[in-house]
Amino acid sequence: MRNVIQTIGNTPLVELTSFNLKPGVKIFAKLEGNNPAGSVKDRAALNMIRSAIERGELKKGDKLIEATSGNTGIALAMIASTFGLQMEIVLPANSTRERTLAIEAFGATFTLQEDMEASRRYAQKKADEEGYFLLNQFDNDDNYKSHIKSTAPEIWKDTNGKITHFISAMGTTGTIMGNSIFLKEQNPAIQAIGCQPGIGEAIPGIPRWSPEYMPKFFDPSKVDRIVDITEVDSTMRTRQMARNEGIFAGMSTGGALHVALQVADEIEEGVIVFIACDRGDRYLSSNLFGDVI
C-alpha cells in the first residue's frame, strides 16, 4: 500500500497521433498532470521539502513561505500538509481562482502580489523579518535535482534511449536544467530546448525573467536553444491538444507543443519529448478554452 507522496512520478509518456508528421519523426508528451497535485512541480516540491527535512533544516510545525506562479504552490501546499508543516503561498495577482482554491483546500494560506517579482520580494522580506523558512525554488538546487532523480530517467527509459529533442517551458528553469543534465550525460547529442514568453506576451507559469531575477542555477550552456512563444500560438495548440489528442493541459504546455511541431518540421527523423506540465482544469475560469480559434 502506498501513500500519496509515493504516487509522485512515473507519469505516462504518450505519442501524439493527430498531427501530420514526417514518417521518421515522433512527438511524445510527458503527462505531468497525472501527479497527485496535478503538475510537474510535485516532483520539485517533494524533493525540496524532503531534502530540507533530511538536512535538519525543517521539522514538523515549522512555517514555510514560497513565491510561485501557482503550480509549485499547489504542490507545496499538498506536500507540506503531509509533513505537518504550515505553508503560505505568495502568488501574482493574475493567478486563476482554481489555483487559490486548491491551495486553500490543502490547508495552506495565500497572499497576492502585483507580479512574480513582487511576490519573490514579499516572500524574502517575510522570511527575513518573521522567521518563515523560504525554500526559494528559484535558487534551490533540490529543484532541478528532482528531475535528475526521476523525470529524465523515466523519459530515457520510456523512449528506450531514442529521445533526440527535449522541450520544456521555462519557469524556475528547474525542469529543463535537470532533464538536460541527465539526458546529455546519456547522449550529448540530445537537444534541450526551452520556451519563454515573447516580449509583451503573458503566459501563466512562465515569466520572462529580467536578468537580476533569473534563477541562479540556470546554466545557459545546458540549453541548446530558447524559443519565444506567443499567447495566440500557445492557446491554439492547447485547444488542439484537448480536442484532437485528449490531452487537457495549460497554456505553457501548448507553447511547448508549438515548439515541438516547429522542431518536427526542421528534422527528417527524431524522437521529440515535451513536458505537458499540468492539467487544464486549473484554467477553466480563464478564457483559455472559451473562444473558438
TrEMBL record:
One GO MF term attached to the UniProt entry: cysteine synthase activity
UniProt keyword annotation of Lipid biosynthesis present: no
UniProt domain Tryptophan synthase beta chain-like PALP: residue ranges: 6-278
SUPFAM superfamilies (UniProt xref): Tryptophan synthase beta subunit-like PLP-dependent enzymes
Pfam family, one: PALP
Gene3D superfamilies for the chain: 3.40.50.1100
Matching InterPro entries: Cys_Synth/Cystath_Beta-Synth, P-phosphate_BS, TrpB-like_PALP, TrpB-like_PALP_sf
Enzyme Commission number(s) of this protein: 2.5.1.47
Cofactor dependence: pyridoxal 5'-phosphate
The entry's keywords: Pyridoxal phosphate, Transferase
UniProt entry tagged with the keyword Plastid: no
NCBIfam families tied to this protein: PRK11761.1 (NF008735)
Protein name: Cysteine synthase B
Organism: Mucilaginibacter lappiensis
Taxonomic path: Bacteria, Pseudomonadati, Bacteroidota, Sphingobacteriia, Sphingobacteriales
